[in-house]
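[job 4471] stage=fold_predict status=RUNNING
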Amino acid sequence: MIREYIYAALFACWVFSTIGVGVWQRHDGALAQASKDQERFNQISADVLKQQKEANDIISRAAADQAALAQERDQFKTQLEAEHAQNQAISNALRDQYAHLQLRFQSAENRCGPSGASAVSTTSSTSLPTAPAECVIPDAIAGNLRQLTADADTLADNYRTCYQFVKGTK
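[job 4471] inference complete, writing C-alpha cells
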C-alpha cells in the first residue's frame, strides 16, 4: 500500500511540475511579448514627438511669415494713407486758391450765349462785332462745376490709393 502512495505522489509531482513548467513558460513568453510591445510603443512615441516637433516648427515659421507680412502690409497701408492725406490737402489747397476766381470762356461771336442766357460779357461794347467775347460763367453754374471738379479729384485720389493698395499687397 505504500507503493500506491509513492506512485500517487510521483504522479502528483509529475502533474504539478508539468503545470508549473507551462505556467513558467507562459509567464516568460508574456514578459518577452510585453517587452517587445513596450519597445514598439516607445518607438511610436518617439516618432510622434518628432512629427509634433516638425509640425510645431512649420506652424511657427508660418506664423512668423504671417506676422511679418501683416507688419509689412500695415506699414504700406500707413504710407498710402499718408500719401492720400497729402493728395487731399493739395487738392483742397488748389480748390481754395481758385475758389475766388471767376470762370470765363471766349465766345466765337460777340455775345455770351443765346438771348436770355445768364452768362455776362466782360468785353466792352465798343469792341468790334466780329471779335470774340469773353464771357463769365454765372456763380451757381461755376459753383456746380467746381464741386464736380472737387468730387472728381477726390474720386481720383481714392482710386489711386485703392489701386496702389491692391497692387502693392501680397
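[job 4471] summary: The helical segments are 2-98, 139-168.
[job 4471] exit 0
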